[in-house]
User: What shape does this take?
Amino acid sequence: MNQYDGVFLIGFGGPTPGCCKRLDPCPGSEALCFVQCIVGTNNMDRVEEVAKHYNVFGGFSPFNELTFKQATALKDVLKSRGLDLPVYIGMRNWSPFFGETVEQMVTDGSRSIIGIILSSFQSSASWERYQQEVQDAVNMSENGPLVVRYIEPWYKEDGFIDAVTDLIRSSCLGWSRERFKRAGLILTAHAIPQTAAEQSPYTKQFIETAKLVATRLDKHFEIAYQSAPDNPPISWTQPTIESLIESKKGKNVNDIIVSPIGFLCDHVEILYDLDIAGKKKAQSCGITMVRAGTVGNHPLFIEMLADRIEDMLSDSKK
Assistant: This one.
């Protein structure tokens, strides 16, 4: 008998239609509510600026929908292997919130869950904070005990690396082999405070993934960070994607391929920061920028997650 009775995908979340009922009075839109709850009220200029990014896409984010597609794909793969495990989803910043999902799991009878944090690399903000908030939700539950155990980071697993590599190649379909060879390759992750980077394996893992991807492609690569706040009071990881693109101006660079390997699905920090702002910067420098897709529900990535789940199930029987 399996020790575990479910899988829990743990994500950042994004605004979807419908009031989340977190702020009273309501700030007037889902996007404003979402950003204000993350940024806080001490920097309303930043709140309004980021909310405008969401408004470009109708005021919402595809993050939740894409995460549910990941969950469906994972459940189907597990079922094909004879593992009929429910796959739950909980978000830190939007419904279904961690507390809602924890209550659903214990109501369904789950007592021991495999948790998957939907972040490529580890920092206090991208892993430990998620684990703590999930545990807080578990501690607040009145419907029964629940234990969540997490799969280890997958940043150098073949399934992840091969999915990223396939998406990079797919972004350049129609290019000649020579054009692909000459194009610059930039791999991105979310910027974090420099102090957080120094105290975590985040940057080391990012670079290791980038090296593995570039080796598969037989290409030189560079890394860059994206989506940092403007004019922050402390230092954040560098270089920014904007500054790296700018540095290539006038240096006989015609094409660049940007792959956001620190993100697992397309959401506004991809759709705006890369597809709009990044491409605009590249165009101003006379460079064609192509953005590779995120791993999302790519079969190789989902199969890798299923392998990790099977490993945990096997270990629980020993």
Observations:
- The radius of gyration is 20 Å.
- The longest strand covers residues 184-190.
